[in-house]
Design a protein that fits this description.
- With 289 residues, this protein is an alpha/beta fold.
- It has one domain: 4-Layer Sandwich (Purple Acid Phosphatase, chain A, domain 2), CATH 3.60.21.10.
- Helix content is 29%, strand content 16%.
- Strands 3-2-1-12-13 form a 5-stranded mixed beta sheet, with helices on one face.
- Helix 2 links the parallel strand 2 and strand 3.
- The protein is globular, with a radius of gyration of 17 Å.
- 46% of the residues are buried.
- The structure holds manganese (II) ion (MN).
- The site of manganese (II) ion has 7 residues, from helix 3.
Length: 289
Amino acid sequence: MSTYAIGDVQGCYDTLCRLLEHLRFDPAADRLWFTGDLVNRGGQSLETLRFIRGLGDSALAVLGNHDLHLIAESVKATERRQKNLDLRRVLEADDGAELIDWLRQRPLLHMDKELGFAMVHAGLSPQWTLDRARIEAERVEKELRGKDYKNVLLRMYGDRPRGWSRRLKGLDRTRAAINAFTRMRYCDPRGQISFEAKGTPGTQPAGFYPWFEAPGHKPRSCRVVIGHWSALGRFQGMGVFGVDTGCVWGGKLTALKLQSEPEFIAVDCAQPGSTDADPLAKDDMGDSD
Ligand SMILES: [Mn+2]
């Protein structure tokens, strides 16, 4: 039995099938982890959701910013026609509501202490141990599954507050946690996020660090798999493994075999993608992963 963590699929279903063939994935024996952003831009978001949901207990996925955006669009869908064709196919499918409901129940953080790995879409605040991260994730997950979820989804957008703090309450705390889990790349030692910086390490503004290198960050008891950061690409360092290799941009779809010496396995993108900015950035700053 093997467990593979797969990077951002973003609706590239054909490429996912190609990767799983390459891995000789056996749903009866193997397990798949997905770093989130299952949907948007690739053109086959509907097929991707159907397939991964259909895997049942053989697959688990954490929420990414594009997944949250789709769920939020479903809340608004009755008010205006969806312009994004890939997302519209999900919203208008007979099983669309069921798929989105399933997506809404996904966690923000997955941790398997026995395996020694955790997974989030983007990052962890430097103030969080993994146990603290789990508490913050569960708090937001409960809101997304609760009866006020529409309000939470409609008010999660935006870059303020710029970082998580234990003093934050209510929706500010929710938004700060969502931004860390699903959008962060660079932050300062206090966990204040630079939403503008999205390039390779070394290109960020002074005083900001890749979140996993922020000075004074809390210790992390598991290795952490992330997606979201296609400019970082295939990455291994500081106990972090990056597996977003920009499939939807014509790059590769990458799997990481989770074992004591993790192994990267990738296939080329099988389809062209399109371009869209980060949907959770209220002012559309081109934060694209
Ligand atoms: Mn993302």
